[in-house]
Amino acid sequence: KQWYQRRVAITAGDNLEELVAERSEQLAIEKEKADNLLCRMLPKPIAEKLKQGEPVAPQAYDEVTIYFSDIVGFTDLSSQSTPFQVVDLLNDLYSLFDGIVERHDVYKVETIGDAYMVVSGLPVRNGNRHVAEIANMSLDFLNFVKKFKVRHKPDVQLRLRIGLHTGSVCAGVVGLKMPRYCLFGDTVNTASRMESNGLPLKIHMSDDAYDALSKIGGYELESRGEIAIKGKGVMTTWFLLGKEKKLEESQLLTTLPTSSESNKSPSPNIVRSRSSSRRSVKRERPKQAVGPSETIISIDGTAVYKNKSAEDSEQNDSGQRNNGHNNGFLPSVNA
């Protein structure tokens, strides 16, 4: 009888240990899920501080590069689609964009409707690589969207419009319920203006972004000339066409496939920035005077173009989205 009682006690102890081990494993799995979800809402370094109960003070960053994009004609496409089809479209497109983001040293800030915002250079500083990371990611987005098929409208070609700008920002966590990591500063507004004044299937960048990317080299850039930007005045802007075949890997954190556009022969106003020469790149500035053959067209007080009358039809879709950018950050809205 005593032997039987000892045997029952040993068996019960073993079962208890197994039960504790099983529950501990389940707890660790659930904790990992919660941590992963938090890191999707906030940058990992910020999330770690919040988990430890540490305050997260706003930080200033001297130089980052911000990416904005939207879909030209999205309003018309939405009017021809059901709400469920619109949700499926954006989910298909931006889920694949999220996969591309994972390949680069960038942080996805958020999406609002068809607008997509990404930044590089924060919260972990990466030297001067931020502009190259955003440039590579933008080229990947552009190459991908040209092949993307809308499920309910397979014959429709999505026209992505991209804007880039490099400058200083302040970043911090805003809110307690569903906290968001937001960016503040004029750099955010300028990047938004680069997008709204850009062209479909083009990467439009500011002069500051151009200067930063030229220092790294290996990219093919084309001068757009001077355009008037609402709230900014006249700005010289550029188009990023692609990457040159030979790009020094030591200057980039991630090496990505060369854009097909970089193989094209350059036009007279294309400027190539080569990393091997280490020489300053000469820019081709358009003439300041407006000749008789040139036309200046004002669009809702937003921009003035020289010899760009064909661009008028592409500006209408951006007007409804500019209001959300005026305060220097994007509010959190679930897309």
Low-confidence stretches: 248-335
The biggest sheet, with number of strands, parallel, antiparallel or mixed sense and barrel status, is: 11 strands, mixed
The share of residues in extended strands comes to 25-35%
Work out the radius of gyration: 25 Å
Distance between the termini: 68 Å
Average pLDDT metric: 75
Query: What is the number of E strands?
Result: 11
What percentage of residues falls in helices of 4 or more residues? 25-40%
How would you name the oligomeric state of the polypeptide chains in this document?
A: single chain
- Secondary structure tally, helices: 8
Structure class: alpha+beta
Shape: elongated
The helix/strand series, from N terminus to C terminus, equals HHEHHEEHEEHEHEEEEEH
List the defining traits of the structure above.
single chain; 335 residues; alpha+beta; eleven-stranded mixed β-sheet; 11 strands; disordered C terminus
Mind explaining what this structure looks like?
With 335 residues, the chain is of the alpha+beta class. Helices cover 34% and strands 26% of the residues. It has 8 helices and 11 strands. Strands 1, 2, 3, 4, 5, 6, 7, 8, 9, 10 and 11 form an 11-stranded mixed β-sheet that branches. Helix 1 (2-41) packs across helix 2, helix 4 crosses helix 5 (129-145) and helix 5 (129-145) packs across helix 7 (207-216). The protein starts with a helix and ends in a 13-residue tail after the last helix. The model is unreliable at 248-335 (pLDDT under 50).
Topology:
Blueprint (H helix, E strand, L loop, with lengths): L1 H40 L2 H8 L7 E14 L1 H6 L3 H19 L5 E6 L2 E6 L8 H17 L13 E16 L5 E5 L1 H11 L5 E5 H10 L2 E11 L3 E11 L26 E4 L22 E4 L3 E4 L12 H4 L13
Parallel strand pairs: 4-6
Antiparallel strand pairs: 1-3, 1-4, 2-3, 4-5, 6-8, 7-8, 7-9, 7-11, 10-11
Helix pairs in contact: 1-2, 4-5, 5-7
